[in-house]
What does this fold into?
Amino acid sequence: MAEIGKINQLRIVKDHNAGIFLDGEDLGEILLPNRYVPENCAPGDLIEVFIYLDSEDRLVASTDFPKVMVEQFGFLQVKQTNNIGAFLDWGLPKDLLVPFREQHTRMVEGEYYLVFTYLDPHSNRIVATSKTNKLLGNIEPDVTKGDKVEIVICDEREVGYTVIINDKFRGMIYKNEIFEDILPGDRRSAYVKNVRDDFKIDIQLNPLGYGKIDDSSEKVLTIIQQFGGRIKVTDKSEPEMIKEIFGMSKKTFKKAVGALYKKHLIILEEKAIAINKEK
It folds into this structure.
């Protein structure tokens, strides 16, 4: 069944002078306006689209996807406010409304806020709330140590960054375990480091397998991360360069690189070593 506020694969039904109509199943036929119609498509083809209500509350499809889907958290900027509420930039022509009753504090134009996007059950309009505390209760998490999860980076604290895990739970990444640039609002994959008895969750950006390597390999990995995930040094580089950057002999460096490569944690290029981001 096609869902409003989500990405759907829908079949093209017919052409129209305003675009093409898609089979929205229980939602009926949905227009994909001309500006979004891909070249060389025809009735019967499947196409991936986002469904929402336009400014006249008509169902419409788009091949441009928003920054946040229904039932997801995100950091969005307020474009304008009026007597209805605040309107957020979420990447579509029709801005995302946060009604006054759904604002934790009165929103200010130009500022960014953490919001949760949902479908209003009465109007089928996609709206958002900044009253996020009520959505992240102290419930037993359904994740365990080592699980790969999706996170949204939230507030910066003295010890690290708070995160939202799988759009359901709170967590924390500690600053001494961050070796790359991250910003509030970033949505990315991460890994569960620990689930505490009080249901608090520690998160790390890299797989837990990183902790199973020896000290030299861990040092090499950390330094590569500090260089943005790719460094123009290889096991063929001059010993002096390796010593200056990594603080170890070329022999130790080659052994460490070999161990990392066997665990598929790095990619060996002709003139560089890079973090394997798919690991």
